[in-house]
Request: fold
Amino acid sequence: MKFIIQRVSRAAVSVRDETIGSIGRGFLVLIGISQEDTQAVADKMLRKMLNLRIFEDENGKTNLSLKDVSGSLLLVSQFTLYADCRRGNRPSFTKAGTPEHANAIYEYILTECRKECPNVQHGVFGAHMEVSLTNDGPFTVILNSEEL
Reply:
């Protein structure tokens, strides 16, 4: 599982020119799910993400978590995080989870995040989406379950 976490001052996701999710201060998280990923892997990733202390405290130190700042989440599925570009110029996506498997894990992630964060917005699984954001910092963190 891969999370690209961007600390944002605002972010939004649209499908067919209709905004379906938007947040203010918080995290925009692009989520890639492989076929091997499980709910246990998701739990580990979520604990790490939700407890990341990457917001500034009163002294300007990155010492506060999403919960500490009452931040929001915008979660967007993105199978292209599993692009394999080692051979040729056309990426292979064979390491990405099947749509059925990935969607089930994505829905699980949404459910679990709602238990911890009062404002969880999301994209539409499998849809063509337009994502806009104002990256705060910029500050971007990559979490890979194989490295945790």
